[in-house]
Amino acid sequence: MKLNARKSLLSLTIAGALCSLSMASFSEVKVGFLGGFTGPIESLTPPILSGAQLAVSHINSQGSLLDGQILVMPTADTTCVDASAASNAGDRLVNSEKVVAVVGALCSGATIAAANNAGIPGNVLMVSPASTSPALTDLKDNDLVFRTAPSDAYQGEVMARLLKSKGIDEVAITYVNNDYGKGFADALATAFEKLGGSVAAKEAHEDGKADYRAELGSLASTGAQNLVVLAYADGSGQTILRQAIESGDFSLFVGGDGMVGDALISALGADALKGMIATKPGTPDAPGTTAFSKLASTVVGFDPKAVFAAQAYDAAFLIGLAIEEKGSADREGMSEALRKVATAPGEIILPGEWAKAKKLLDEGKDINYQGAAGNHEFDANGDVPGVIVEMGIKNGKFVELGQLK
């Protein structure tokens, strides 16, 4: 399935590029993609990349950038959890590939490492579709780091309300010991206790271990029956759930967006995860979401509701719009251009409407992109409010159960 999706999107990108090549110049504009192609989000990364590639195909098939420059997207692997690998990946894109901007990274720690060691020193705009740690909000980034997904400061509050609404009054929390896990766990615990809930334990764990039985024993000793796992579906989260199921110490499992991957269900079985509660950043009921779903439905094997796929489309499309607004493919002024094309007033541009946007910008008119994941009115820190949806398991897959407030 993933292979078919990649082939389809590659065909779209090539077709768009060939169309543009016949129209104008042979020059390229590079926008990089930083993803966790190996490591604990390995199965979550391909559909996120596919979302960004779909935006590239729409740009290249509708006139390309500026005077016909082709948009290409070199990729680099952060591994998600290795700061050195993330820094090196960012360095390759910024200093070797000479990208104008970057979609990514995905994991919050990887974004911070790549930004501090490559993006910010290189004056390169970074728009992450998936980094949700509250730590990004206060990053000293010279207005270069943005995200199209909401902060976990918000997701934690929403998850707390969801748990209370289901009559859950006590939880034990285990979280991966990085910016993502700690930020999410702190936000959830604070919000849950404010609502009258009890956090029996909140303990960090290291990713990549083969055995978490000692950590699970400590959490189970509190007597809590509800285990919240804030980690990754292909990493510690999967191992912890497997060993928790084997121990039989918990009756209910809860997960954040990093756990929402069908690979988790394939590995552990839908029956073993029956009743699991999860949340993820989602998409609102808005024209941009509808437009994106229709466009994505034409791509074989691509799920527009995959975790962070819509946010990745928006990140790539917004970067393209910012380049077009600026009128040049250099790094200077990208942040200002990004804010301009994403903010009212201006004529509304939906996903897939590159030709319309290009024409308006060429005429000197303002536009306001309303995307696949919502309207991206970036605040002073480059954050967006976004929406959170409840996830459940039906017919062996994660499915959306509704938007949460």
Which structural traits does this protein have?
405 residues, alpha/beta, Rossmann fold, seven-stranded mixed sheet, six-stranded parallel sheet, 13 helices, 16 strands, globular, disordered N terminus
**Relevant CATH superfamily of the largest domain:** Response regulator
Number of discrete domains: 2
The CATH topology of the largest domain turns out to be Rossmann fold
Structural category? alpha/beta
Question: How many DSSP E strands?
Answer: 16
**Count of helices?**
13
Cα-based radius of gyration, to the nearest Å:
21 Å
Measured distance between first and last alpha carbons: 33 Å
As residue ranges, the low-confidence spans are 1-25
State the share of residues found in helices, binned by percent.
Answer: 40-55%
Question: What does this molecule look like?
Answer:
This protein starts with a helix and ends with a strand. The chain has 13 helices and 16 strands. The chain has helices at residues 2-23, 45-61, 83-96, 108-119, 152-165, 179-194, 213-220, 236-247, 262-268, 287-296, 309-326, 334-342, 354-362, and strands spanning 28-35, 70-72, 75-77, 101-103, 125-128, 145-147, 170-176, 198-205, 226-230, 252-255, 277-281, 347-349, 367-371, 374-375, 388-394, 397-404. Helices cover 41% and strands 19% of the residues. It folds into 2 domains: 2-149 and 285-330, Response regulator (Rossmann fold), CATH 3.40.50.2300; 152-275, Rossmann fold, CATH 3.40.50.2300. The strands form 3 sheets. The protein has a 7-stranded mixed sheet, with helices on both faces. By secondary structure, the protein is of the alpha/beta class. Residues 1-25 have low confidence and may be disordered.
